[in-house]
Amino acid sequence: MERLDHLEHLDKALVDELAQVARETVRDELRRQTREQRRKAMFYGASGALALYAGAALALTVGLALAEGLPDWAAALITAVILAAAAYALRAAAKPSASRPTPERMRDDAAARGEREHVHGGTAPLGPPGGLAGPGGYPPVPPVAPGGAGAATGAPGAGTPAPGTSDGAAPRPDDIDPETPHHRA
Fold first, then answer.
1. Do 140 and 132 touch, CB atoms closer than 8 A?
2. Which long-range contacts (CB under 8 A, 24 or more apart) does 111-115 make?
3. What percent of the chain has pLDDT over 90?
4. What is the 3-state secondary structure of 122-153?
5. Tens of pLDDT along 57-113?
6. Contact 79, 66 (CB under 8 A)
């Protein structure tokens, strides 16, 4: 028995030593990566500062060139308008707009048309990420329209038929037309 206790002590010492080596290796790798990232950030910052000065020099050049034929205030105003238009164009390019399709919007449009999107390495999900879609990728339909459970509740809309029906029965999933436009709230 004494011999097994000695081996257990060796196993514990070996595990402790391996854990220490692993910690030191991870720490050294993180330090190396941090140093590299810090160096990259420094170069990007310097590059941005130099680009700012280059842009200011270009704006000054445009202003001086315009001042040759115009009054100084008009040249400065035209230069400011050019810079404002460039800033607005860059902002518009960075911000997704309603007219430009984004990946999320393309996915929503394809889902509304009932198309399956192409996904690398697998198949497209049938529903939204939350898993709330029912059969065919459509959201679940409540069995009764909101407020249509009965007129005895006194709630607003109680006893009114569900939208699109005349008898108050809730629409079934088979009744939903995928070609009908859907509006997002």
1. yes
2. 111/137, 112/178, 112/181, 112/182, 113/178, 113/179, 114/178
3. 28
4. ECCCCCCCCCCCCHHHCCCCCCCCCCCCCHHH
5. 999 999 999 999 999 889 999 999 999 998 888 888 888 766 666 677 777 777 777
6. yes
List the end-to-end C-alpha distance of the chain, in Å, as a whole number. Answer: 73
114 vs 36 pLDDT, higher one: 36
Is the model's pLDDT at 151 over the cut of 60?
no
Inter-residue contact 140 to 129 (CB < 8 Å):
no
The first and second tokens of residue 94, run together, are 């960075």
Q: With the C-alpha atoms ordered 72, 75, 81, 86, is the resulting torsion angle positive or negative?
A: negative
Task: State the sign of the Cα–Cα–Cα–Cα dihedral 133, 137, 138, 143.
Answer: negative
Contacts with 3 (C-beta within 8 Å, 6 or more apart), sequence order: none
The answer to whether 168 and 160 have CB atoms below 8 angstroms apart is yes
